[in-house]
Amino acid sequence: MTILDKIVAHKKIEVAARKELLSVQDLEGRPLFDKEPVSAKSWITSPNRSGIIAEFKRQSPSKGLINGTAKVSDVAEGYYKAGASAMSVLTDQEFFGGTVDDLLAARSVSPVPIIRKDFIVDEYQIIEAKSIGADFILLIASCLTPEESKHYATLARNLGLQILLEVHDEQELEAHVCDKMDLIGVNNRNLKTFEVSIETSIRLAELIPNEYVKVSESGISNIENIKELKKYGYQGFLIGENFMKTEDPAKAAIDFMKQL
Ligand SMILES: O=C(O)c1ccccc1NCC(=O)[C@H](O)[C@H](O)COP(=O)(O)O
Q1: Residue 13: its pLDDT value, please?
Q2: Which of 180, 184, 185 has its CA nearest to residue 159?
Q3: The pLDDT value given to residue 24
Q4: Known catalytic membership, residue 36
Q5: How many angstroms separate the first and last alpha carbons of the chain?
Q6: pLDDT score, position 192
Q7: Atom of ligand 1 minimally distant from the CA of 60
Q8: Who lines ligand 1 at CB under 6 A?
Q9: Is 41 labeled as catalytic in the residue annotation?
Q10: ipTM of this model?
Q11: Structural domains in the chain, sorted by start
């Protein structure tokens, strides 16, 4: 069983329990459900921002504990001031130590588009994402069939949310891309070995149709990585650990983005 199989199996149980606690009607009644989403595509491609999607991540299966003390609202405020184009908030508790409350806290202080970073395996999670003020969602091709990807992307679109489709290889890209997606993310982390290589983004770049914003995810740790990825048409850069492993992720983001 791979780590992704474990996460997905756990997620299905978790979502079933969440549904018992709060119905879809309850989610639709939350005040943030009616908030107009901010366009991640516009912010990521804006010449006035950095293209960086800065992530709040306390822990991960590959690294264990990364940061047990940072306060999400401080980090969210700092990422915005640093020039981040978007923020990624892990809401998975079991494997990443995140919660939906983290996203709510980030939302309360930051105007940048926020992605609910989770393992979406049920419509409920997309409606929940809208109800906590997220602007875009992640669909991970390795967790879904192509039909599920399209179905969930259509639902998200109908709610006004944009969609970042994450792929790891050519096969996933070919099978899952559809006209409901907005951004295509190539994850540089091999989820079987946890090795990271930006060569994965470079290899897949020319296969991503031009109408999608290209995002490179994971293992980005310096400005040279970004300069290199830009040559291949990448406009979005998802960075988590490089900021979160420091005592002050907001300061790390400010120092990093100053160099761009
Ligand atoms: O990070 C992991 O260990 C991991 C394991 C299994 C599934 C997903 C995982 N990571 C999620 C991510 O996509 C990263 O948090 C994100 O791309 C940022 O990566 P990094 O800058 O390397 O922290």
Answers
A1: 98
A2: 180
A3: 98
A4: no
A5: 41
A6: 86
A7: 3
A8: 3, 55, 57, 60-62, 187, 189, 191, 217-220, 238-242
A9: no
A10: 0.98
A11: 3-258 (3.20.20.70)
